[in-house]
Amino acid sequence: MHRHPDKRRTKTPDPADRAELRKRYGMLCSAAGIAVNLLISAAKFFAGWISRSVAVTADAVNNLTDAGGAIVSLAGFKLADKKADAGHPFGHGRLEYIAGIGVSFFTLLTGAELLRTSAGKTIHPEKPEAGVAAAAIILFSIGVKCLMAVITKSAGKKIASPALEATARDSLADALSSTAVLLSLIFARLFPHAGFPFDGAAGILIALFILYNGFASLKETVNPLLGRPADPEFVKNIESIVLQHKPISGIHDLVIHDYGPGRVMLSLHAEVPEKSTLSAIHKVIDAAENDIMIRTGCAAVIHMDPIDLENQEFIRVRGTLSGILADMHSGLQFHDLQMVPEKNHINLVFDLVRMDGENRNGQPDDSGLRKNIDSAVKKKLGERFRCVIRIEAPFTAGGLPETDPASPDRRRKNPGQRAKGKHKTTAAVSSRPEVLPRQRRKPYPAPHFPALPLRLQARSVCTQSGNRQPEAQPQPEYRRRTGSRDRFPL
């Protein structure tokens, strides 16, 4: 019996297991951050007291605020793990982002206070007493902070946590600031009569770096709340999963709603043959939604966009329009093309996506772009064609080039050439990113999704629930006896 070479990769982690892993990583790193920062802060306060150095004392305050930030982060992970309730049907996952904002504000406050104190010491310098004990304490804290930065950054990437990644950047900033403090003590010891305020100057440099790091962390944690384009690899993964379900020939308008790490919902439009029956396509769409949930843990809603794949005139017009947009500007994509006949002309109604966003680089505005496209279409197709264009903003970074009709890599290289007998509606699998293979020709296990309205699962649910019917029994009789019409509505 032939076995798949990557059989070990067919098992997909359960979304609940991923959520529990996130919680454990986050709470462990936050608890370790609290303990380590409190210990280092106490040691540096002692070093600042014996050395009379404002830079060392400010560094101690910095570590103390880091401990407070770790407490906020720990509370964020704990609250984000709360289940959805009546008032918050999408859960509490975004509290983790809010915790990351809290950590960033702690960093900004620390930098501002350190800048104020260091500026005062630069104007009115005091000679610090650089001793071996103070230098040893600071050197030890540098090593600990570097280790914390590496561990926290690794954990943050593993669970895709903005809060932990912000904490890692803050730990690295702490290590660099402590290095500057150590250098200021060394220079003050080597050049006691230089007359230069090494202590205050080091404090100012540290403060500026901390402020920069705080603004960078704030930006990274605010972006998910404001909404940002999805990761291109994730988009390609979703595209590959959906296109495995025939006869879906393309997708567009992929919108991803992020309600916190591990709580992602998405919606998209799937291009399907116009002559397919609604019942048959509904089965395919339900199976694709179920497949996305199993393999990514994301709830999906798919809208069906019918395409007339038998109309040679439509295929010719679409190919011509694709070439016009490709020659005009590489950042243009279109979808939802419809040919609407009028009395004396034909309207070409379609949606146009401008991938250049606000950075037009000398390109015309929306009104000018509509005129240019309309003129080019009339020149190529004739005066009887008129364009009705709705311009949209891109929802994903880089768009969906694999399924966009304007892409030169469209599955049918010659739009005017049709296959005989059946539609050629799928791309070569080898040209797409590798995803976890799904088990075909088998119904999805009902215990994972017992309430989904999928008629595909009716026989599987009956078998697993103990109400097994003979294999030769007609499907309508099965529905009548088991009462599955209420559970699996048509």
TrEMBL record:
The chain crosses the membrane at residues 25-47, 97-118, 130-151, 171-191, 198-215. It comes from Candidatus Avitreponema avistercoris. Keywords: Membrane, Transmembrane, Transmembrane helix, Transport. It holds the Pfam family ZT_dimer. Residues 32-226 form the Cation efflux protein transmembrane domain. Residues 477-490 have a biased composition (Basic and acidic residues). This is Cation transporter. Residues 410-425 have a biased composition (Basic residues). It comes from the Bacteria. Residues 397-490 are annotated as: Disordered. It is a multi-pass membrane protein. It is found in: Membrane. Coiled coil: none annotated. GO terms for molecular function: monoatomic cation transmembrane transporter activity. Residues 460-472 have a biased composition (Polar residues). Residues 231-306 form the Cation efflux protein cytoplasmic domain. Its main location: membrane. InterPro entries: Cation_efflux, Cation_efflux_CTD, Cation_efflux_CTD_sf, Cation_efflux_TM, Cation_efflux_TMD_sf, CDF_Transporter. GO terms for cellular component: membrane. Belongs to the cation diffusion facilitator (CDF) transporter (TC 2.A.4) family.
